[in-house]
Structures are given as C-alpha cells and as structure tokens.
Design a protein that fits this description.
40% of the residues lie in helices and 17% in strands. The chain has 318 residues and is an alpha/beta fold. The chain binds flavin-adenine dinucleotide (FAD).
Length: 318
C-alpha cells in the first residue's frame, strides 16, 4: 500500500516506522530479521531500506602496484526489500539514489521494483563516495533528486526512456523525497534549499522524510514554512537518539545539524556511556511525545540496524 494511504487510513493517529541498512556483502539476511523482530510489536506499516553507492578500494598486487577497484559494501537493497515483504507482510520502501546509476539502469531497477509489488520509493541524490570530496553524478545518470523524481513520475505516466516500445505499462509508485529542517549542507541558505524542496514537491513528490533533528522547534518551523508555501504533503520526521558521547561531534559533522545546549550539557555531565545512552533515549522520548501532540503523521527512526534504543523509545511513546 502507498505510504500516503497508510497515513490517511490512520485518521490522525501517529504511526511508527524505521529504516535500516542492507546487509554487508557476504553476510546473512538473518541480521536484518534480528534487527526487525524487536520492533514488529509497534506495527510499522512500512520499513525503509537505504541504498549505498559503490566506493573505491585499492587492491595491492604482488608486484606492489595498487589497483583502484569499485566496490559496493552493501549491495542488496532491492533483495532486502523483497525478503522483508515476504517475511513480515509490511511495505518495504527502497531508497533510490542518483549516484552509481545510468538513467537506463535506474529505469530497469524501477521495473524490477514494480514487478516485486513495491509501491513506494524514496528518491534521493545520494551521498558522495567517501573517496570523492563532493557528489559526482554518474555519466548519463541523474544529478539531482528532482531529476530522478521526474523519471519516476514519467514512468507513472507510462513514459519510458525508449518510446519505441509497445504496450508500455504505467508504474504507480508513491514517491518520497528528503527534506532538511536545518538545511542541506551544500545549500547556501535555507531559502535556496527550500526552493529546491518545493520544486521536488511540485514535480510530483507525495511525501517528505526529514533529516534527523534534536530540537522540535526546527521541525515545526520547517512544517510551517512548507504549509505557508503551499507544500501540503505529509512531512515525516526522521529521528535518531544519541547513544554515545562521540555522537556529540560526529552527528553535527556528518549530518550538519545542531544539538541543543541543554542536551549537550546533559550528555557532557554523564559519568558513563550507559548514562549517555539513557539521557539520549529520554530526550528522544520527550521529543517523540511532543511530535505526536504536534500531529506528526509518522515517527520514523534511523535504527542503523540497532533496534534496542528505538524499542525503548517506542514502548514509552506508543
Ligand atoms: P537533492 O534534493 O538533489 O539536493 C542536493 C543539494 O542540491 C541540496 O543542497 C539542494 O538544495 C541542491 N539542489 C537541488 N536541486 C538543485 C538544482 N536543480 N540546482 C542546483 N541545486 C540543487 N544517502 C544515500 O546515499 N543513501 C540513502 O539511502 C539515503 N537515505 C536518506 C534518507 C533521508 C530521509 C535523508 C534526509 C537523507 C538520505 N540520504 C541518503 C542522504 C542524501 O542522499 C544526502 O543528504 C544528499 O547529499 C542529498 O540528497 P537529496 O535527495 O536531498 O538531494
């Protein structure tokens, strides 16, 4: 079922969902099931699976020369989605990225998703490869999420890249995009970033999932700005509790967000990492209760494959 229909059917009740990473190449799907099982008691109507672009590694040969090799550490997003749908009978939402795909490969992947009965996709530009200092589009691939979105919208209207094929089937994907309450890090300012978000919604996006945030006022200001500017699609807050003290530095660095002073000081005054985790979880419980009161359609957790903190939070909130 489409995410927008899950939200409609919930009639104002806040839903629970989460995302995880596909298995590391060579590892069993069991690790994914172990990460999902503890969260099934909260009836997620959908589970997201992220997509990771290939990176480069250097292989050393016997003669000492290094060879640059493209390598995808977690290659199986689509298969992980199929396994989740088969085992749990919930909707799996693959993240679809621009990086690493030509337009033709993107189209073929979307056809596979349609055949598998996947109704929703989250379209993203994707992160830069670790080995690149900035995002580099794939030759003949899409450069922005809005272009990838347009591609899916075209297929939903029965328009494929090659118009010499007969009896083209219209796909029927419900399409999500990313939004950044504290702005995307490459954007010169919030308004410019917002302009491109609006372009994605006007281009056909059905819902928005936000980057994580630790201050609900940021989410509220973002939702208000969207509504004032005619963006009326559901805005799903993306959430992640702080679980160790190193994240005070790593989360702002990686995700370009602010951690409020009160939370920072509470973590800095902890005597152990166990205490840090408790503080992080308590903070997130408070945030989630407030977001429910604010009418957030879904609380969407970035679990990164570790379900325990999310389970504690969901037990306190749902
Ligand atoms: P875009 O919407 O394309 O925006 C990228 C930047 O370009 C922004 O600064 C925007 O303001 C600007 N911009 C947009 N359109 C234009 C234009 N036409 N001209 C000029 N500038 C423009 N990454 C992964 O690799 N895999 C994942 O699975 C994944 N999942 C994510 C899930 C969520 C909910 C979120 C919030 C992020 C996720 N990311 C993922 C990270 C995301 O790919 C990065 O943040 C990426 O840098 C931007 O992606 P986007 O889709 O927001 O890009």
């Amino acid at each position: 079922m489409k995410i927008v229909d899950h939200i409609k059917n919930a009639k104002g009740k806040t839903l629970f969902s989460f995302e995880l990473l596909p298995p590391i190449k060579g590892q069993s799907i069991k690790g994914i099931f172990d990460a999902i099982d503890p969260l099934m008691e909260f009836n997620p109507p959908f589970i997201d699976v992220t997509y990771l672009r290939e990176d480069y590694i250097y292989k050393q040969h016997a003669n000492g020369l290094l060879e640059k090799v493209a390598y995808r550490k977690r290659p199986s997003t689509v298969a992980t989605c199929a396994a989740i749908m088969n085992k749990y009978r919930v909707d799996a939402v693959p993240h679809l990225i621009c990086g690493g795909f030509t337009k033709d490969e993107t189209e073929n992947a979307l056809i596979d998703l349609q055949f598998l009965g996947i109704d929703n996709v989250l379209v993203l530009r994707g992160d830069a490869r670790k080995s690149d200092s900035a995002f580099v589009p794939t030759p003949d691939g899409h450069a922005y999420a809005s272009e990838l979105l347009q591609h899916v919208v075209n297929m939903n209207n029965g328009r494929y890249l090659h118009d010499d094929i007969d009896n083209l089937e219209k796909t029927d994907f419900c399409i999500g995009v990313a939004g950044y309450p504290e702005k995307h890090f490459e954007s010169p300012n919030l308004d410019t970033d917002f302009k491109y978000l609006k372009q994605k919604v006007e281009g056909g996006a059905d819902f928005i999932v936000t980057q994580m945030f630790f201050d609900n006022r940021r989410y509220k200001a973002f939702v208000d700005k969207c509504r004032e500017n005619g963006i009326n699609v559901p805005i799903i807050p993306g959430l992640k509790p702080i679980t160790n003290s190193k994240q005070l530095m790593s989360l702002p660095k990686v995700f370009h967000l602010d951690i409020p002073l009160e939370l920072t000081e509470a973590i800095q005054s902890c005597k152990s990492e166990k205490e840090v985790k408790e503080v992080g979880i308590e903070w997130m419980i408070h945030q989630c209760k407030e977001l429910k009161e604010m009418g957030a359609p879904v609380l969407h957790f970035y679990t990164m494959g570790n379900p325990e903190p999310t389970r504690k939070i969901a037990r306190a909130v749902f």
